[in-house]
Amino acid sequence: MVARHDQATDPRLQEDLLQARRGTAFFARKLNELSDAELDGDSLLPGWTRRHIVAHVGYNARAIARLVEWAATGVETPMYSSPEVRNHEIEFGATLAPIALRHLFDHSAVHLNVEWRDLPADAWHHRVETAQGRIVPAEETVWMRTREVWLHAVDLDNGATFSDIPAPVLERLLKDITGAWHTRGTDTGLVVQITGTDLAFGDTSAANPTIITGPLPAVAEWAAGRGSHGIHATGTATTDDIAPAAPKWI
Ligand code: ZN
């Protein structure tokens, strides 16, 4: 018998699962607001239509479900067999009929949710490997999915903004992004500060930093490489308050 409720017992993990499910519901809502014809329109990601976004988010759920299955069974099942396979899958998915594309999103989301629901409490600590080669506990799959659904709901470009994304998700996203900069050494002299808080990320010990400030949604949007509305920039790398492009993070 499979369980009809989550096996996870850690309250933090239960909260994280809720955030991922909320994000999935939000993405579904934005997708359902689009007509079939509108799926052909551009997304916010260069070179990708909305179809590409939906295909990517669908196949991403399947890939993450493979990691959860890995944690459950101990049988190694990578997210993607290669980056080429991942990219080919998205290109193919983008050509599907609208109804098939919508089913891909719905079914893959339900499947991932079932894998999460049935994963025994102790198996959430089992190690799996992400597509980037990071070794992480299965718990991390919840955040991986949360980030995808919230960000790509905005990328659908039909009204969702970073202000729709819950603050804890934005904060964790900023930590991820600035952490990636730090790992790559691309954050030298760059500091991001959230207005009205003592939150600061990046090269906070720099002597003459370029400082990016703004409300959390605006700073996260800029850091994620999706525009510079509502932020201010001061310091060496700026002229006339125009922010430099954020370093790449993915
Ligand atoms: Zn993505």
Written description of the protein model:
By secondary structure, the protein is of the alpha+beta class. The chain is built from seven helices and six strands. The longest helix is centred in the N-terminal third of the chain and has 24 residues, at 50-73. It starts with 10 loop residues before the first helix and ends in a 16-residue tail after the last strand. Zinc ion (ZN) binds next to α5.
Secondary structure layout plus pairing:
Elements: H1 11-32, H2 50-73, H3 83-93, H4 98-118, E1 127-129, E2 135-137, H5 140-155, H6 167-184, E3 190-194, E4 200-202, E5 210-214, H7 216-223, E6 232-234
Parallel strand pairs: 3-5
Antiparallel strand pairs: 1-2, 3-4, 5-6
Helix pairs in contact: 1-4, 1-5, 2-3, 2-4, 2-5, 6-7
This protein binds zinc ion (ZN).
The site of zinc ion has 3 residues, from helix 5.
Secondary structure class reads alpha+beta
How many strands in all? Answer: 6
Oligomeric state of shown chains: single chain
Helix content: 40-55%
CATH class of the largest domain: Mainly Alpha
Would you tell me which CATH topology of the largest domain applies? Four Helix Bundle (Hemerythrin (Met), subunit A)
Provide the gyration radius in Å: 19 Å
* Series of secondary-structure elements, N-terminal to C-terminal: HHHHEEHHEEEHE
Distance between the first and last residues' Cα: 40 Å
How much strand content do the residues show?
5-15%
How many structural domains? 2
How many helices? The count is 7
Unreliably modeled segments: none
Shape: globular
**For the residues shown, what is the average pLDDT?**
93
